[in-house]
Design brief:
The chain has 651 residues and is an alpha/beta fold. 29% of the residues lie in helices and 23% in strands. Helix 13 links the parallel strand 24 and strand 25. Helix 1 packs across helix 2 and helix 1 packs antiparallel against helix 8. The longest helix is centred in the last third of the chain and has 16 residues. The protein is globular and about 80 Å long. It binds zinc ion (2 copies).
């Protein structure tokens, strides 16, 4: 018998094998491939192009793993077509290090055994209403959005919905944008359910991955809390998907295989014909559009838990209270912060810039420190005593000679969190402070720091956007936005939306336990309309306006965008080739081609980068026609094309 076997590699089609075994679609097998053996899956169709003279080899053996469900195979085929990724690479996302796990001792699963215990958490009337709306027609595919202010208790509503699904014998998946960092969410889960969920992200051990992968395939594990990649686990009896913080842009995977995990979760739910719940304080523009069109149902939780109110907003006009040189915190701000500290409020100084200074320059020779691999300034990290490229990781020491006059004499322009931290320590010498950024919070002892913050043993935080990601700090009632920078909106069509999400999430960290809280914006810009917009208590006003702008300009979600990034080491050759490629595809695809232009980060990791943008109708025809043409075009060696469907970043 001949069988089509898909292998986790760059091929977009299965290979034909011969076998005497009884094999059916979805079975995991070991097959010879070249000089090695690989794990593959019996696919649902043969390779279409059959005029090749390969010798048909025999399947080595069948693996003792529950076979992959038909609807997952269909989902992977669609995933590959939509994101323009070879089918083999889509399968690779589902396998574990390109393999399948045959056997795990049943002891392994025991730690995740479901054992729902009674809790004394009582839903409010409002929460109960949301749950009711969420559970309408939850036996088949439908998308429900639970929109609620930060701190309004959305989690308890979807936990309750999940409990019902587990009680019916199904599996559930909760997707979270940030997960490796903190046990706060797991603790909340255990408090509600009384058992430990399986947690899935790139940082867990290989052993744990094997247990979870196999437990999911065998239906021995019922609940997974996971990052993007958990979406590809081979669930045997999936009954519900929940995407928490659905608006979060980190659901988009930008490197390697590019896809948007929120959107792919929705399509997986549709292939599985199961319900999916999207949870958010402020929906993404795409989700908002689908709510307005009536494609998604909606429930709203408007009140905050314990009747806590949202923080107030105050603008501190830096034109009135001049900053001293090398200082970024105004006298007026210091007075306000002191009043909060007297009341035992915790204070956060927010600045979305890691390190000490984003730009180092010599007073004598005027040359600045930039990355030799990327067209980007190096950021000075005083704590680590080096200069760092945030894109490629290049490091340099702060030590350089001017051409003639001896050592360089450096000036640091602009602050990063480390520099603000130095200033804060000078102004408030008796207070405990800490920097909260990916440089300081990714380490083992970060749990200890987190506990100190939760217990208000650290009174002042200096943080980057990392802090906006779902942390619950009970005493945090004062946030100072050191420098509200809204200037980046020019070249990024999502700039306004990104700012709305960031500042909404950020202010949601404050005032979570009922005490009055305030967010202060320091700014020179007297046109504060943008600040008013993004801090409006009704974010729908902003979303409605933004959606209208997108409609008028034919931008997503009204059109499909596909970014094509071509990289190469020779600049002029790259520019020529990018243009040739444009001409080649232009007349043959469903859509318009814009560019080529130099990417905003023109040089990255030693490669020059040119960008093209395809704009077309929202139809898979755009991808299909483009894929056909890409296949026919041969780039010179050393040049590489990356395709990004529905791009979020335009770097
Ligand atoms: Zn670099
Ligand atoms: Zn110099």
């Amino acid at each position: 018998m001949k069988v089509p076997i898909l292998i986790p590699n760059i091929f977009n089609h299965p290979f034909t094998y011969d076998t005497d075994l009884e094999l059916k679609e979805g079975d995991y097998v070991i097959v010879p491939f070249g000089k090695t053996e690989l794990t593959g899956v019996v696919w649902n169709e043969f390779e279409k192009n059959k005029n090749k003279n390969f010798i048909i080899k025999k399947v080595s053996r069948k693996l003792e793993v529950p076979s992959l469900k038909k609807n997952i195979i269909k989902f992977l085929n669609w995933f590959s077509e939509y994101n323009m990724i070879p089918k083999g690479m889509a399968l690779k996302l589902l396998l574990l290090s390109s393999g399948a796990v045959e056997e795990v001792s049943s002891k392994g699963y025991e730690q995740f055994k479901i054992d729902i215990k009674q809790n004394n958490i009582e839903l409010s009337k409002n929460q109960k209403n949301c749950l009711k709306k969420m559970n309408v027609s939850n036996k088949k595919f439908r998308v429900h959005v639970l929109q609620g202010t930060t701190g309004s208790g959305k989690t308890m509503v979807y936990f309750e919905a999940l409990k019902e699904i587990i009680n019916k014998g199904f599996q559930g998946l909760i997707l979270l944008p940030e997960i490796g960092l903190t046990g706060q969410f797991q603790n909340k889960f255990i408090e509600f359910f009384g058992f430990k969920p399986a947690v899935w992200h790139s940082g867990i051990t290989k052993k744990n991955k094997e247990i979870i992968w196999s437990g999911i395939a065998n239906d021995k594990i019922k609940v997974v809390i996971g990052a993007r990649s958990s979406l590809f686990l081979p669930f045997k009896k999936l009954g519900l998907i929940i995407v928490d913080e659905e608006h979060d842009q980190s659901y988009k995977q930008d490197e390697g295989v590019t896809y948007n995990a929120r959107d792919m979760a929705i399509s997986r739910a549709s292939f599985e014909n199961i319900p999916i719940n999207l949870i958010t304080a402020v929906p993404s523009i795409e989700t908002y559009d689908n709510i307005k069109k009536g494609k998604y149902s909606l429930s709203k939780l408007d009140e905050r838990y314990l009747n806590a109110s949202l923080p107030n907003y105050e603008i501190i006009n830096l034109n009135n209270s001049k900053l001293e040189s090398k200082s970024w915190i105004s006298k007026e701000t210091i007075e306000k912060v002191n009043r909060h500290l007297e009341k035992k409020d915790q204070v956060l100084f927010f600045l979305n810039r890691r390190g000490f200074s984003p730009h180092v320059l010599c007073k004598k020779c005027f040359s600045s420190y930039s990355c030799p691999n990327c067209s980007i300034n190096l950021v000075y990290h005083k704590n680590k005593e080096n200069l760092l490229c945030h894109y490629c990781g290049y490091k340099a020491l702060l030590n350089r000679d001017c051409s003639k006059e001896g050592k360089c004499d450096f000036i640091f322009s602009g602050p990063g969190v480390e520099r603000i931290s130095e200033e804060v320590k000078k102004i408030f010498p008796t207070k405990e402070t800490t920097i909260f950024s990916s440089d300081t919070m990714n380490k083992k002892n970060s749990t200890e720091t987190l506990n100190k913050i939760i217990n208000n043993e650290i009174q002042i935080l200096i943080g980057t956007q990392l802090i906006s990601k779902g942390f619950h700090f009970p005493s945090l009632n004062c946030i100072v936005v050191v420098d509200i920078d809204l200037s980046s909106q020019g070249h990024d069509l999502r700039g306004a939306e990104k700012n709305l999400q960031l500042y909404h999430q950020l202010s949601g960290r404050a005032g979570r336990t009922g005490k009055p809280a305030t967010v202060y914006f320091q700014t020179y810009n007297l046109d504060t309309k943008m600040i008013t917009d993004i801090t409006n208590k009704d974010p729908d006003i902003f979303l409605a306006k933004e959606l209208e702008i997108r409609r008028e300009n034919n931008l997503p979600p009204f059109q499909r965008f596909i970014a094509l990034i071509i990289t190469g080491s020779n600049q002029s050759e790259l520019e020529k080739e990018a243009y040739k490629f444009k001409v080649f595809i232009e007349s043959a695809i469903e859509g318009k081609v814009l560019g080529p232009v130099n990417a905003p980060i023109f040089r990255l990791k030693r490669k020059f980068r040119a960008r093209l943008l395809v704009r077309g109708q929202k139809s898979i025809k755009v991808q299909n026609s483009l894929a056909k043409m890409i296949q026919k075009f041969k780039f010179p060696s050393g040049m590489k094309l990356t395709v990004d469907v529905d791009p979020i970043n335009f770097n």
